[in-house]
Amino acid sequence: MRVDATDRRIIKATQAGLPLAPRPYAAVAARLGMEEAELHERLRALKARGVIRRIAVAPNHYRLGLVANGMSVWDVDDQRITELGQRIGALDFVSHCYERPRALPHWPYNLFAMLHGTTREEVEALRGEVAAILGDACRGNDILYSTEILKKTGLRLRPEKG
Amino acid sequence: MMLDSTDRAILNRLQDGFPIAAEPFAEVARELGIAEADLIARLQAMKDAGVITRFGPFLDAAAMGGAFCLCAMAVPEADFDRVAEIVNARAEVAHNYRRSHALNMWFVLATETEPEIARVAAELTQASGHEVLCFPKLQEFFVGFRVAA
User: Fold this and answer.
1) Domain positions in chain A
2) Using CB atoms, which residue from B51, B55, B68 is nearest to A18?
3) Alpha-carbon gap, residue A122 to A18, rounded angstroms
4) Residues in domain Siroheme decarboxylase AsnC-like ligand binding (chain A) (predicted)?
5) ipTM of this predicted complex?
6) Do A82 and B96 touch (CB under 8 A)?
7) Can you name the CATH fold of A62-145?
């Protein structure tokens, strides 16, 4: 299912953030020239369809003192990946957790989990916790630290075509 | 900025989702046992201090009819800057990080349609002379991230 022109206007009006005011949706609706009730309804529908994953805050890990972020990668038994992925994703120090395809022979890892800590030593300890949970269902692992942001523009709706 | 326990409770609560309602801040404030004005003031302070990078809807590119894919390349150090320039010049590249591994360049492609991912990856392989490996998401286990309360 695609988003229609009104949905796109709503997304564009809110993608930079919601107003920090007692009636944030009323402010957005007024700007768009629509009834607040219609805005609620459309936002609920966009959420139900998964276009909006959630309406929430994104914390800045660096400002929270979590300066060490490691992309940990694991070669997990395919038979157990779903069960174990859910357990790893539920850990409070893991922010993103995905199953991705291996790229053999160079890349044997199929589970990716982003680990956050205040130091690399702390991240290494968290990596140990993950290893303990995966146990013998894991044949190997590695961790990749980001050493430089080369580009970061994020996801934005493209301008309308035509 | 030093966060107190109320700030941390707010961050954790609002990562779970913000209500769609006439007075959503009042609802969340009631849950947390604080005043609505206090909640809004604290959010504003955390936003101003850069503790919160964004507050609003998080979009799923695929559900909007677009596609997303994590990609990686192994680029020799001597060639790194040239390749980074080629990769970053593409509008389809949303993020690009240097990482400590033989696969040392990791970036996300965001395109309007699924087939464009493979096409852009092939074009980048051609232009850079290094193979672009694609790691599309097969399953998502994301649950969230908690600040020590």
Assistant:
1) 5-49, 62-145
2) B55
3) 34
4) 63-151
5) 0.72
6) no
7) Alpha-Beta Plaits (3.30.70)
